[in-house]
Amino acid sequence: MAGFETNPTANLREVITPYRQRTLTRTIHMEGKGLHGGDPVGVSLGPAQAGTGITFFYDGLSVPAHAAFLAPALRSTSLQRDGKTIETVEHLLSACWIRKVDNLVVQVEGGELPAGDGSLGVWLHALSDERIGELHAFRKVVFVARSLWVGEGGRYVFAFPAPSFSVHYLLDFFPAPRVEYFGMDESDDYAELGRARTFAFQREIEGILSGGFGQGVRESAIIFGEDGRALSHLRMEGEGCAHKILDLVGDLMLVGKRLVGQFVAIRSGHELNHLLVKKLIGYDDYNQSEGRITGEY
Ligand SMILES: [Zn+2]
Q1: Distance from Cα 269 to the centre of ligand 1, integer Å
Q2: If you measure from the C-alpha of residue 244 to the centroid of ligand 1, how many angstroms do you get, rounded to a whole number?
Q3: Cβ(171)–Cβ(183) under 8 Å?
Q4: Does 163 lie in the same domain as 133?
Q5: What's the 51 CA to ligand 1 centre distance in angstroms?
Q6: Cα diameter, the chain
């Protein structure tokens, strides 16, 4: 299924840039624990041809990194095809965005990607600049052409047309009177943000672990207490909010190409991020069950 194309919609406008597409120059193998399952898993990242995008290969199937293959969001972003699921792809996709990797072959062993320490660290290391080369084709990007939003109940994600990429996120620790806010423009250092780890609230921990989630990051994830303060040492101010931005950036890659626009998120998670992506590409499933929480200006 190489070369999977997005359906052009009135919400998006495709533009050819003067920049060359990028991919890895050689294959890298990585091993670790799955973020949620905690089982040993392996993955190989390798060069891909221009125009093929990021494609996962698992158990004889090829699964493009595209919203058409999204599995229901359960605290992560997973892709599925023919009853088989590749779990927790968002941190790799986010690292691809940061490193400007357009095309990549991802051979998955074990159905889930390695977690590392719950940040983008392992992926940013694997996709370091000296391992990436340019291809003989210009990069296509898609601009947000129309303002859209999804959300309800104090959780929202907005997409606005803009000449460059920016993302703003507000994390509200309700009921604690504390918020974290991050705003990033195109020129900001997203790789620095990549150190931010995944997190959970103390009140959720028992349910998360007993539900089979978070096993691979139980020692490294940030835990926030009831008062909104971190119970573990933080790597940066606003680390929880920074990680939410990384998750959103990774989820936006599921449009199939790099997006250009202004994104504003308030307490959003993967579920809302996925709805926004589906709405942007005009994927018609989104309005059958949850259309009431989407809108446009
Ligand atoms: Zn994450």
Answers
A1: 9
A2: 7
A3: no
A4: no
A5: 27
A6: 53
Q: Point out the residues of the chain with pLDDT beneath 70.
A: 1-9, 284-297
Whether the full predicted model's pTM is greater than 0.90, yes or no, is yes
- Asked if residue 6 is part of any domain, the answer here is no
The domain of 199 spans: 142-296
- Give me the residues paired with residue 223 across strands: 200
The pair of structure tokens assigned to 126 is: 């694997």
Q: In this structure, are 170 and 133 located in the same domain?
A: no
The alpha-carbon radius of gyration of the chain (Å, integer) is: 18
Say if 182 falls within a structural domain. yes
The answer to whether residues 242 and 283 belong to one domain is: yes
Pairing of strands 258-260, 132-144: parallel
Q: Domain end: 89, 105, 139, which one? A: 139
Q: Which protein residues have a CB closer than 5 Å to ligand 1 (ion)? A: 198, 247
Using CA atoms, how far apart are residues 220 and 250, in angstroms rounded to an integer? 20
Length of the chain: 297
270 is catalytic: yes
Picking from 199, 196, 281, 214, the residue whose alpha carbon sits closest to that of residue 74 is: 214
Task: Write down the pLDDT at residue 286.
Answer: 47
What pLDDT does residue 8 have? 54
Ligand 1 center–CA 91 separation, angstroms: 6
Question: The tokens 């159905």 sit on which residue?
Answer: 111
Domain boundary among the residues 139, 168, 184 is at 139
| C-alpha span between 4 and 255 (Å, rounded) | 11
Rounded to the nearest 10 degrees, the angle between the axes of helix 239-252 and helix 270-281 is 30
**Among 91, 243, 270, 274, which one carries the catalytic annotation?**
270
